[in-house]
């Protein structure tokens, strides 16, 4: 198995921390979407999925605050501080601003606009992408918590998109709880209010069909979404207030997901509704984020291993760049066609982090070696640590494609590197 260079990992961690910082509270940036007549200045506490200015020609426009991506970034804040200790004051302020931004943008008393304000400024070629007036007018109460993304200035998303999505509040609640556990001074009355709001919403909606993490139609009960909802509710149930209701809902979700058990592979299907043998890398990411060492969603559970192994077999066979590799670059799912359906950095790094965590728990040298193999793939295709990590790498050449600077990729690298360090330290303890 190839071994990634330690100096490259350290340099890439510093670069990833810088990329994350550049996307958070980026109040100095301005996004002018000429075709819509839409000018956006990010608000304090917002997280840009990408700082790139792009308009789907062909690079996608990710200059938005995605709830999912922002929660993944929030979870990685302590890792960014570790990579760049001089940034601690920035991150302290950002966490406070993030909580305020989240509270304001999910305020149940807030009302959406009666009509799409871009109707009068959008060009004919862009008007077809505008969000319908009725959707915007209906934004009130819990509807705000169903929004997968917002404009980076905190106003509603004015474009058509897949809704509702129910993983964001779960990931945000879990990230806040994890952050407070790791950095107690991050706790505050405002943080507790946001956690309580997200958990109360999950009590109402968790387990229903919704748009999944890759934002593909139709609504369904994705394993990723159900697992992250379970994780948030189970974590919340250990914090006191309302614990019985949260614990009961978590048990309900665990029982529900048994319907996604896949007899063909022994793993978890992409969703309860999916056909037999249909696997999705997002399921492994949900298990990684839940970070459990026991129970049905444990990182070492048989279904986790079977899901990961099934995905490895799939991607080893469909991506030309995986020929003769000891471990395959990881995509999303077998029939993915977005930007030609390529390996993704967040999924490949997620598989590395998951296997480093397994190695730390079990002392399994083969799991560590596989994780190093995935990190080495990233080093091979992104050797310059000062170059941002993209969303995808081309399935034939490995060249960067789709979004060329994805904030999620930066957070995923920090998590994988931290998991590697933890596995190395655990190995010394085991010895």
From TrEMBL:
Coiled coil: none
Main enzyme class: hydrolase
Domain of life: Bacteria
PANTHER family on file: GLUCOAMYLASE, INTRACELLULAR SPORULATION-SPECIFIC, TREHALASE
Pfam families: Glyco_hydro_15
Listed EC numbers: 3.2.1.3
One Gene Ontology molecular-function label: glucan 1,4-alpha-glucosidase activity
Top-level taxonomy: Bacteria, Pseudomonadati, Pseudomonadota, Alphaproteobacteria, Rhodobacterales
Organism: Paracoccus aurantiacus
Residue ranges of domain GH15-like in the record: 158-417
Family, per entry: Belongs to the glycosyl hydrolase 15 family.
Protein name from the UniProt record: glucan 1,4-alpha-glucosidase
Biological processes annotated in GO: polysaccharide catabolic process
Catalytic activity field: Hydrolysis of terminal (1->4)-linked alpha-D-glucose residues successively from non-reducing ends of the chains with release of beta-D-glucose
Keyword annotations of the record: Carbohydrate metabolism, Glycosidase, Hydrolase, Polysaccharide degradation
């Amino acid at each position: 198995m190839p071994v990634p260079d330690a100096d490259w990992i350290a340099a890439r961690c510093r670069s990833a921390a810088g990329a994350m910082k550049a996307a958070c509270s980026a109040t100095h940036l301005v996004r002018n979407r000429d075709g819509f007549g839409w000018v956006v200045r990010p608000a304090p506490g917002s997280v840009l999925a990408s700082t790139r200015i792009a308009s789907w020609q062909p690079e996608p426009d990710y200059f938005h605050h995605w709830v999912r991506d922002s929660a993944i970034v929030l979870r990685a804040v302590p890792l960014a501080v570790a990579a760049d200790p001089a940034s601690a004051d920035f991150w302290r302020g950002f966490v406070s601003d993030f909580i305020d931004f989240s509270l304001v943008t999910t305020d149940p008393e807030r009302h959406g606009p009666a009509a799409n304000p871009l109707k009068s400024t959008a060009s004919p070629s862009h008007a077809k992408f505008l969000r319908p007036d009725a959707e915007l007018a209906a934004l009130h109460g819990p509807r705000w918590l169903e929004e997968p993304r917002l404009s980076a200035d905190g106003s509603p998303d004015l474009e058509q998109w897949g809704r509702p999505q129910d993983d964001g509040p779960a990931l945000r609640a879990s990230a806040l709880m994890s952050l407070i556990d790791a950095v107690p001074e991050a706790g505050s009355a405002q943080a507790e209010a946001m956690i309580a709001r997200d958990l109360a919403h999950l009590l109402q909606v968790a387990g229903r069909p919704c748009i999944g993490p890759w934002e593909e139609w139709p609504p369904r009960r994705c394993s990723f979404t159900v697992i992250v909802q379970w994780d948030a509710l189970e974590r919340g149930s250990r914090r006191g207030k309302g614990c019985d209701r949260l614990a009961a809902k978590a048990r309900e979700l665990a029982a529900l997901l048994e319907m996604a058990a896949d007899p063909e592979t022994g793993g978890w299907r992409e969703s309860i509704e999916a056909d037999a043998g249909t696997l999705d890398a997002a399921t492994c990411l949900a298990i990684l984020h839940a970070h459990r060492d026991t129970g049905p969603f444990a990182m070492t559970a048989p279904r986790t291993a079977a899901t990961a192994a099934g995905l490895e077999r799939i991607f080893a066979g469909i991506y030309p760049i995986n020929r003769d590799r000891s471990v395959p670059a990881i995509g999303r799912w077998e029939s993915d066609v977005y930007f030609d359906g390529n390996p993704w950095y967040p999924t490949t790094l997620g598989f590395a982090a998951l296997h480093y965590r397994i190695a730390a728990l079990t002392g399994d040298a083969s799991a560590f070696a596989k994780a190093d193999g995935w990190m080495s793939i990233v080093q091979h295709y992104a050797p310059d640590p000062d170059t941002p990590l993209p969303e995808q790498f081309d399935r034939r050449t490995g060249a960067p494609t789709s979004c060329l600077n994805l904030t999620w990729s930066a957070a995923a690298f920090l998590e994988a590197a931290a998991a590697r360090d933890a596995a190395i330290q655990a190995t010394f303890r085991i010895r």
